[in-house]
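> example.struct
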């Protein structure tokens, strides 16, 4: 609500928000395949990247799934954030697998499930960047989620900038970033650029922190999707107001009806 001071930035372009966990490592890019202890799934994903790339190419080549048709279902709101040249085909979002979409990519789905990646919040999607377009500099704020891009089709000249560092993607390889750093992309080529985007929990989160975050975001997502209805707060009676001032003891009495 803007009542708390924002965390201190960890480097150039770092813009952490109030949705923040203290003492997590923060850097623009992460070399996930070089750290199998923290990212045990990363190397195997790269080793099997051809499975995803071949299945994706097959879908693009099907007449009923032209490139534009496959990506036409992305939201207008997302387009405002990312620009009209960026669109996504989502396999998982907000903790829920899209059964219909995953049926188009069964091998990709099976591989991702087998790898047991600790998927977080936004989940998994194929992302397209059209020729001559780019995503403007922005930050997602949350420091407890990392994002990997698996290069599928990367024309020459495409770039991604995180913090003050600019790189490109490599086909069949993971480019991993912390999106609490300001980041932007560009595709100056004459072809579409495609990557598979995977969001996952920061490896330094404790089990309790991760469980707490999963509970909070599951509840928020359920509320925003209408699964959990909005309830108008009831007016407080005098006894309730008196109990509220009794701290945890008053809360316990209110919840249990006054029993010890």
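> example.seq
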């Amino acid at each position: 609500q803007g009542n708390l001071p924002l965390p201190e930035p960890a480097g150039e372009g770092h813009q952490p928000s109030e949705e923040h966990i203290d003492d997590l490592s923060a850097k623009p890019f992460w070399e996930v395949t070089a750290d199998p202890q923290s990212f045990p799934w990363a190397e195997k994903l790269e080793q099997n990247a051809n499975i995803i790339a071949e299945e994706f190419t097959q879908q693009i080549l099907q007449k009923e799934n032209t490139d534009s048709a496959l990506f036409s279902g992305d939201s207008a709101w997302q387009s405002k954030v990312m620009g009209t040249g960026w669109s996504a085909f989502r396999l998982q979002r907000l903790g829920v697998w899209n059964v219909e979409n995953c049926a188009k990519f069964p091998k990709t789905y099976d591989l991702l499930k087998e790898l047991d990646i600790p998927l977080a919040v936004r989940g998994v999607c194929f992302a397209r960047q059209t020729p001559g377009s780019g995503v403007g500099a922005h930050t997602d704020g949350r420091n407890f989620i990392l994002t990997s891009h698996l290069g599928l089709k990367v024309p020459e000249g495409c770039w991604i900038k995180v913090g003050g560092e600019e790189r490109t993607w490599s086909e069949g390889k993971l480019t991993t970033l912390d999106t609490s750093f300001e980041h932007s992309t560009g595709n100056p080529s004459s072809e579409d650029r495609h990557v598979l985007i995977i969001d996952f929990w920061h490896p330094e989160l404790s089990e309790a922190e991760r469980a707490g975050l999963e509970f909070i975001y599951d509840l928020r997502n359920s509320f925003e999707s209408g699964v959990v209805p909005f309830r108008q707060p009831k007016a407080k009676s005098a006894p309730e107001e008196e109990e509220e001032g009794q701290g945890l003891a008053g809360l316990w009495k209110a919840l249990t009806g006054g029993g010890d």
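> remarks
DSSP finds nine helices and eleven strands in the chain.
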